[in-house]
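ERR on first pass: missing label on line 2. Operator R.T. fixed the label and resubmitted. Corrected input:
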Amino acid sequence: MKAICFVKSVPDTETRVKLAGDRLDKSEIKYILNPYDEFAVEEAVRKKEAGIVDEIVVVSMGPARAQEAIRSALAMGADRGVHIEDDSLDGSDAYATAKVLVEALKKEGGLDTFQLLMFGQRAIDGDTWTVPSMVAEMLGIPSVCNIVKLDIDGNKAVAVRMVEGGEEVFEVELPAVFAGRKGLNEPRYPSLPNIMKAKRKPINKYTLADLGIDAGTVGKAGSFTEVLKYELPPARQAGRKVEGEPEEVVEELIKFLKEEAKVL
Amino acid sequence: MNFELTEEQKMLRDMVRRFSEEQVKPRAKEIDEKCEIPQEIIKQLAELGLMGIHVPEEYGGSGLNYVAYSMVVEELSRACASTGVLVSAHTSLVVDPILKYGTEEQKKKFLVPLAKGEKIGAHAMTEPGAGTDVTSISTTAKRDGDYYILNGTKHFITNAREADIFLVFAMTDKEKKHKGMSAFIVEKGIPGFEITKYEHKLGIRGSSTGELVFEDCKIPAENRLGEEGQGFYIAMYCYDGGRIGIAAQAVGIAQAAFEEAVEFAKTRVQFGQPIANFQAIQFKLADMATLIEAARLLYLKAAWLKDQGIPSFYKLSAMAKLFASDVAMKVTREAIQVHGGYGYTTDYDVERHYRDAKITEIYEGTAEAQRLTIARALLKEM
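pass 2 clean. output:
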């Protein structure tokens, strides 16, 4: 069977977010492959190493830098890439993104070709957690998100996800969407020989026209949500020092916990 | 002029930085204390393709270049200087000369497992009576039919504990002085070859430093690297490249100490404010950053020149090593100063960086020897 992994280029976790007015200042951001997507790619690569999967395709929608995320996934062991780039995609929300990913999947052969659709549970930038389920819904196939274990046997898969106090075990028929989280596996470091090989792996490039998508149905126009502005969280306030005799300090502290922190 | 890294170089640097941060750095203190690099780290280095970075793929390497290799040594050394020099001594002093001077047979037999990291290399030149003055080595190799008989003692040999393959230098004809020196590929475990002791050192304590004794040790003649009498030139070739690795190691050590100094200065409060607010500290940090940047550019240029095959790269590699080792000493010393009394304790890593930095002024040619190399080169040119 073939696997398809949907990945995203996101700001590095160590990025210091800066604003230019009420927009993000992207000039000094270093982008990386979304860490959650690494779980998805790693799982697909392991399934390939186990002889279950014979080809892994990595798909990413985004500007030129999305290609670097694709290369990172190729260096981990995926076979080829698909890059969807179009100026009209700017401003796409999770719904518009899911629509585009579905069309890219169809362009590459659809569900006749791919049985294993892998995602990271969330992207660390937008953090909507919704694209995997939306893609599954649009395709009319099952999705199991937030998984920590995935076993495949023929056209059935058993996926485990953690819930409070226990595990939920799902048995689903393939094709299906799976979204991985921490605990699914330990993503490998791309070895240097694999980084060199990744350079030679093909990446198909599609525009909206190639996918037969009307520009008015994606981007800002095709989105249900719109980012109005960005704001930094309020700066951390300096701590307050309570001084005096122990009795006074305790009294003061209890008063604070009751009246200001409102936790008592 | 273009200072931008290629896409592969960026991916390589990101991978090594992440590996170093996650796998090596958390164990650096333990490596220093136990005087040993865990086997699993060495295994990971091999799996990641970091033991033959500039070796062509056909010989088991990763097919990149010396620039990429030296960047890797910096990143590893930023986490752990002992791990950095393990890769550097292996690559520059054993892998590189076999790649350059080895026969096709030798490359298949020795280079491939070395470049894959299945085997580790050590370079054996130094003797109790021969340091900088390599032509005074007294180890001999006498031809006996299809063999050479090796006799002598080598000491201060980096990677002695980990190595499977030793590149040993010996006199095949003492009369001819430096033209009577030859190089031999010696496998661990053969009769007549023993490792008799390991040194206790000030810094890079995780890097093993051993003494090798050869007593009527029979080496097959096909294990001679290069021609008889070519040993001295092979050794010089090794050190010209090796200095780039050591310069990169020195920059990595300095970078680590610098980052810790910045972090400490921003959080340490004295006189009611972080000490980073004080100009006395700011000037130190500014100087440290500037020195590191200059040292890094110097080793990268030397590596680039070597990759281009420009013979005069050796002058730049001597400059890079001289300057970077001096920078490592200055920066680590100042990093301790920024930390004050805390920096003098083992609760912080800067004391280790300070101890690790010192060796970069000594091995693979002392700072004084680098100055001689540089002066002779420029006087010849100008």
